[in-house]
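Thread title: Can someone regenerate the structure for this chain?

I was given the following input by a collaborator and told the matching structure tokens would be attached. They weren't. Posting the sequence so someone can regenerate them.
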Amino acid sequence: MTSSHITAAGDRAPDILQTWLQPFRRFFTAPVWEHVLILLMGALLAPGKRTVTAALRITGGREASNFTCYHQLLNRARWSGRAIARRLLSLIVDRLVPAGPVVIGVDDTIERRWGPKIPARGIYRDPVRSSHAHL
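Best answer:
Regenerated them for you:
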């Protein structure tokens, strides 16, 4: 691993991870980007729940002095999750459907909310359930 991104524990984010995530680099500042790489690397490697603590534990940053910076990446975010999701969707569409129209179907039969602003809530039965009651 020959990257310049180093965790507090001295581990480095692999070059392949930086290459894969390069399309998202512009959404983060330089210091935040380093934390993003480490958290994503930890989230990919951590068994069980993908928490910030589990991600840092697996990358060796559990005793890091800047441990709270990783939590602040999520709770004090200045980056836009929607902008990142939009970029991800465009990358997926460009890869899977390089030419031609994209048809997106929406199924509203799983709507579970009630109220006057939801006029067409249907009654659907789950064929897997043993009860014949409507859901």
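Residues 15-96 form one domain.
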